[in-house]
């Protein structure tokens, strides 16, 4: 008997272990958590959570068999594909799941897992019956075309699917635009271009019109590429499809230049964007070095998450100061940005500042009328804080003493409009293929992505409930502070506090930030109590030293 903990609590995979039409038919278990037992159509899509020994939890994704009875299955055509037949164990094991938490202590619970992505032995579509469509939504990101290409080529070459449509111009394209037939020939060299060959848009998400269009066109696999907003839209589409009892897969491929999608290791195009940002930082460095008291000021993307700025800074080593939305700062007075600039210019004669577009927005809205405008998707429109702070720096140094030479560089759209680099191309290929395998296997309502390096199917709920942010108490931010040696910019009154009060404990650093969502304040209480290693952080350090010095002091 197999004594593996997972099999004992029946981590059911309808595509491998319990096919519905094989001679060795094994009944589908009725007792799965949140599973309604009978295979009647269920309109409630509740989380599929399976618990096991030693604190093991599987957060599973929906499957056709959850709400459509008696579906036939077919052997996966990949088993006859010469490219894959030689690969041992090409099909994913029934029990394979991917752990979210891989840094563990001896006695800590095994924690959350996701279903491993990849091809299954049985599929729920015959190749000629598949009618797929692809849509891209939200802002641009390097690699969009590669994902489109690889979904098309994956469907054609691995599964013999020949009906793939491109939906033009984002969600509204489902009901307001024509479709584009996509073949391997059409998409052959699109990965060499930036942008998306399908076009994109914000807003225009009309669920019933979109699902009507899917139904009217006879589409049964919907591949949706986009960021957090897009995945929210995909989740709503999935719920409506499920409510109507349609055999239609909804598969999300996460896209965001800001890297703000939680759970997954990082989003595609991020590396390319960081690489492209180096060109702007290099230019800023060259300009600043060449003039007396030169300041190169670079504004990068990052609405709520400063990952691009942080990684671009770490990669460059020429940056003296990195400003991100997660780390508040102020301009005037002791410990402020102006004081630091003056100090650094006196020491080095020049400096480079990198700023994420979402940083310091509160300073700007204090000084000018708050901008409460939104884009078509409901995202807050940001003020150009980079330009504003540049002007404030110029004004500040005009007054008394130092003549400065500030050059403002805004490459924001350049870093997301370029084609993806080689490593992102490979990453995009894996994402696309994982999505195709999952769809063919009848999984639906999922976003695909790597979790600790292994591709997994993640329920929509998990990627839309929170945003991935830089955790400034994690080691990665400490590495950055170590590289720039910038101050913490904590407000003087916060730093000193009420002298009668006890000096609060310095925040300890708890583990690597490998780009996963770790902003504790966004975590569910359940997660926090389950994972005892990520306790609610104590008050951030605060003793007048730089952030880094304080961290080092604490580690002594
Ligand atoms: N809560 C929601 N429910 C349904 N649809 C949504 C929701 N939020 C956003 N959308 C739709 O998703 C699409 C993309 O959203 P948005 O413009 O926020 O970009 P995104 O996917 O977050 O990408 P990025 O922020 O990386 O550019 C839009 O068409 C928008 O209407
Ligand atoms: O100008 P657009 O196309 O709305 O996009 C700008 C936004 O899109 C992003 O690239 C992704 O959310 C943000 O960094 C940026 O604020
Ligand atoms: Mg977004």
UniProtKB/TrEMBL annotation:
Q: What is its EC number?
A: 2.7.1.11
Provide the reaction this enzyme catalyses.
beta-D-fructose 6-phosphate + ATP = beta-D-fructose 1,6-bisphosphate + ADP + H(+)
Q: Under the GO molecular function aspect, what terms does this record hold?
A: 6-phosphofructokinase activity; ATP binding; metal ion binding
Q: Which cofactor does it need?
A: Mg(2+)
Stretch list, region Disordered: 12-33, 508-536
Bias (Polar residues) ranges: 14-25
Q: GO CC annotations?
A: cytoplasm
Where is the site described as Important for substrate specificity found in this chain?
229
* Keywords, ordered alphabetically: Allosteric enzyme, ATP-binding, Cytoplasm, Glycolysis, Kinase, Magnesium, Metal-binding, Nucleotide-binding, Transferase
Protein name (record): ATP-dependent 6-phosphofructokinase
Q: Which gene encodes it?
A: PFK
């Amino acid at each position: 008997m197999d004594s593996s903990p997972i099999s004992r609590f029946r981590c059911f995979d309808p595509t491998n272990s319990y096919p519905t039409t094989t001679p060795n038919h094994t009944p589908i278990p009725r007792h799965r958590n949140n599973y309604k037992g009978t295979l009647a159509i269920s309109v409630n899509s509740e989380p599929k959570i399976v618990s096991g020994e030693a604190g093991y939890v599987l957060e599973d994704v929906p499957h056709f068999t959850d709400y459509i009875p008696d579906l036939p299955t077919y052997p996966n055509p990949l088993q006859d594909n010469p490219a894959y037949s030689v690969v041992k164990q090409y099909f994913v094991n029934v029990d394979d799941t991917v752990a979210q938490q891989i840094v563990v202590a001896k006695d800590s619970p095994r924690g959350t897992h996701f279903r491993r992505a990849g091809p299954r032995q049985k599929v729920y579509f015959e190749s000629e019956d598949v009618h797929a469509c692809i849509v891209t939504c939200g802002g641009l990101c390097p690699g969009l075309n590669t994902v489109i290409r690889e979904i098309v080529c994956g469907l054609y070459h691995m599964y013999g699917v020949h009906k793939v449509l491109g939906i033009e111009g984002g969600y509204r394209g489902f009901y307001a635009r024509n479709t584009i037939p996509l073949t391997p020939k059409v998409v052959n060299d699109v990965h060499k271009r930036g942008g998306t060959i399908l076009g994109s848009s914000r807003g225009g998400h009309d669920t019933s019109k979109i699902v009507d269009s899917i139904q009217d066109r006879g589409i049964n696999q919907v591949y949706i590429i986009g960021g957090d907003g897009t995945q929210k839209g995909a989740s709503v589409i999935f719920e409506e499809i499920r409510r109507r009892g349609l055999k239609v897969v909804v598969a999300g491929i996460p896209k965001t230049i800001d890297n703000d999608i939680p759970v997954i290791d990082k989003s595609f195009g991020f590396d390319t964007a960081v690489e492209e940002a180096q060109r702007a930082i290099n230019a800023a460095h060259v300009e600043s070095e060449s003039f007396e008291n030169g300041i190169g000021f670079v504004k990068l993307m990052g609405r709520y998450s400063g990952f691009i700025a942080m990684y671009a800074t770490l990669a460059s080593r020429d940056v003296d100061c990195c400003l991100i939305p997660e780390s508040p700062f102020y301009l005037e007075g002791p410990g402020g940005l102006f004081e630091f600039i003056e100090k650094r210019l006196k020491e080095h004669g020049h400096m480079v500042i990198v700023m994420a577009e979402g940083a310091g927005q509160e300073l700007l809205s204090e000084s000018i009328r708050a901008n409460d405008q939104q884009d078509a998707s409901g995202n807050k429109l940001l003020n150009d804080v980079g330009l504003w702070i540049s002007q404030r720096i110029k004004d500040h140094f005009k007054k008394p003493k130092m003549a400065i030479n500030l050059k403002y560089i805004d490459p924001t759209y350049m870093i997301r409009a370029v084609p993806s680099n080689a490593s992102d191309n490979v990453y995009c290929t894996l994402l696309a293929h994982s999505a195709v395998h999952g769809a063919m296997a009848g999984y639906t309502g999922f976003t695909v992505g790597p979790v600790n390096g292994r591709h997994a199917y993640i329920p929509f709920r998990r990627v839309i409930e929170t945003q991935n942010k830089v955790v400034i108490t994690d080691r990665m931010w400490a590495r950055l502070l170590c590289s720039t040696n910038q101050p913490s910019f904590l407000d003087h009154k916060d730093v000193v506090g009420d002298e009668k009060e006890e000096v609060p404990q310095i925040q300890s650093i708890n583990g690597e930030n490998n780009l996963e969502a770790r902003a504790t304040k966004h975590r569910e209480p359940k997660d926090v109590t389950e994972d005892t290693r990520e306790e609610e952080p104590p008050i951030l350090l605060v003793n007048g030293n730089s952030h880094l010095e304080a961290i080092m002091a604490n580690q002594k």
